[in-house]
Amino acid sequence: MTNPYVQRKYVIITLILLTLFVFVARLFYMQIIDDSYKYSAQNNSQRRITKYPARGVIFDRYGKILVYNEPAYDLMVIPMQTKEFDTLDLCHILEIEPELLRLILKRAKMYSKYKPSIVIPQLSLQTTAILKEKIYKFSGFFLQSRTLRKYPQPVASHLLGYVGEVDDAFIKQNPYYKMGDYVGISGIEKTYEEYLRGKKGVSIYLVDVHNKIVGNFADGKYDTAAVPGYNITTTIDLELQQYGERLMRNKKGSIVAIDPQSGEILALISSPSYDPSLLVGRKRAKNYQLLLKDTLKPLFNRALMAKYPPGSTFKMVNGLIGLQEGVINTQSSFSCSRGFAMGNIHVGCHPHPSPLDLISSVQHSCNAYYCNVFIKILNNKKYKNTEEAFLKWREYVTSFGFGTTLGTDLSYELKGNVPTNLYYNKYFGKNRWKPLTIISLSIGQGELGITPLQLANYACILANKGYYYIPHVVKEIHDVKWDNSKFKTKNYTLIDPKHFEPIVDGMEQVVKAGTARIARIDSITVCGKTGTAQNPHGKDHSIFIAFAPKENPKIAIAVFVENAGFGATYAAPIASLMIEKYIKRKIKRTDLEKYILDANLIKN
After folding, report:
1. What value does the mean pLDDT take over residues 557-569?
2. Does 161 reside within a domain?
3. Given 181, 213, 233, which residue is the final one in a domain?
4. 424, 391 contact by CB (below 8 A)
5. CB neighbours of 408 closer than 8 A, spacing ≥ 6?
6. What is the 3 state secondary structure string of 510-575?
7. Is the dihedral of CA 426, 431, 432, 434 positive or negative?
8. DSSP reduced 3-state for 146
9. What is the domain count for the chain?
10. Residues 210-250: tens digit of each pLDDT
């Protein structure tokens, strides 16, 4: 029989051991498994302050500053460290309502009781000065330095882009970022974010019971320095960019200018635009909403995202395909009686000499000529039927960079549209469409949709007689190696270079004695082509592409002016002035300049 005293002894020992086990397990959980207790203890005596690096400075091609940084402060809070404070006093300093402050603190607590959250970002220097004097009154609150983007000139907003605060979804995909961090949202700021952002550092301080910093933790042994972002030199000519934006004031449309010998974008204008400083600091959210509601859509980057019919500028593509396919030669001529007529199809044309050969057809922009060429391409006997010939035609067209993204280093580039055979099969029925059914493609109308960037790249192809470099806006990232090999590679069309000679000769005649005489510049041989794109929603769009000089070209350009009529009316003089500005650095044709600057095409 078991002794009851011995039995009681074992029970007591078991209870003691069980109690010790519970304590040890709890301590293990608190110190090893659950970080919150560690954070709580540390946060009561320590403050970890993130050191935000300055974003890289952005320069134009000549070293002029496009974007730099200025100091700013965020008011931060660690919810676990807050104690009762004078809410009205803090709200008065911050110029906000108490209800808003309570909401901000509630969200901060939901995010983390132990980690810092932003209360108010980008405080003014005046508010910062007041808070520095009174911060000891607000336990758990502290000021954190950072930088804001600053723009010396209110230009190139679509090209440069802007930065904004990250959200929860972005943080989940990009662990580097924490709540309150900023990231590039568009333009260069987005594409080159990893180079521009730098690397965050941290300082760990000891604080007293009054929330005052009393020294560095462990003499700064665990601090890390912030590493500034890399500076970037762009391909942009600031003076040319500014001039282009002046010319496009009170007009809707776009200008894209490229150096055809390198693919470097010299200017990229989308109009209407906005002052990039509007999307900086605390006013960003409010201004963004105002810009978003603006009926002129100033946030919309027309240079990369607007899809226009290319109009008569596209005729030269069909001319080149006709030469390559052998269905025409430079002497091939067609008559024009104020247009093209076949069956119940009629495509009108303006008065000009007739008949015309290839060079003259470019010079006078004859619709009838290119309707005939297009029919010959799609009726080519070496193909089984219209659809097979069309597939080959489309292959040629896409080799010019149409209907696809070019791969530029700017964000949100759209590919435009070159219709497919599947589209026509679905719309008209298989084997039920013929060249006449889609004759509008011959003159750059119909289902074609081309972006201004693509059209400027097309001008580069014509200047280079068959190839292009991918258009890009960054020339150099300072102090770091980066892979820009794709921007150094020639991309060839499927057209033999020899076929470009007569087309370029025709473009020269366009400016000398054709539809764009207004674009002539003394001592500079300009090769160009006008376009007038039909617009179902209003007045036609004015289009012009050009390059200059004819030999050893330095600039290729595309101009779209929405609802502005003929290509020679506004687009051609704008392009001509831009070429003169870039090559000669000053404008002699002040009357032409005044005509463009005074034009207001969006009066209402």
Report:
1. 95
2. yes
3. 233
4. no
5. 265, 304, 453, 470, 471, 472, 473
6. HHHHCCCHHHCECCECCEEEEEEECCCCCCCEEEEEEEECCCCCCEEEEEEECCCCCCCCCHHHHH
7. positive
8. strand
9. 2
10. 556 677 787 778 889 999 999 999 999 999 999 999 999 99
Measured in whole angstroms, the distance separating CA 276 from the mean position of its chain's CA atoms is: 13
* Span 433-441, average pLDDT: 95
Instruction: Give the pairing type, strands 58-59 and 232-234.
Output: parallel
Query: Same structural domain for residues 388 and 481?
Result: yes
pLDDT interval class at 40 (50, 70, 90): very low
Query: In terms of Cα–Cα distance, which of 230, 243, 341, 282 is closest to 118?
Result: 282
Q: Comparing C-alpha atoms, which of 567, 151, 148 is closest to residue 365? A: 567
Pairwise CA distance, residues 365 & 17, whole Å: 99
Q: Are strands 467-468 and 491-492 parallel, antiparallel or unpaired?
A: antiparallel
Does any domain span residue 26? Answer: no
Write out pLDDT tens, residues 105-116: 999 999 888 888
pLDDT category at 37 given cuts 50, 70, 90 is: very low
Separation between Cα atoms, residue 400 and residue 506, nearest integer Å: 19
* β-pair partners for 46: 206
Angle between helix 452-464 and helix 500-513 axes, rounded to 10 deg: 110
d(CA 578, CA 588): 12
CA separation, residue 7 to residues 2, 14, 19, 243 (Å): 7, 11, 18, 99
pLDDT at position 60 is 97
Q: What is the mean pLDDT of the chain?
A: 91
Task: Give the domain CATH number at 568.
Answer: 3.40.710.10
Single pTM value for the model = 0.87
Q: Which domain does 145 fall in, by range? A: 46-233
- Starting at the edge strand found earlier in the chain, the sheet holding 264-271 runs 264-271, 253-259, 555-561, 541-548, 527-533
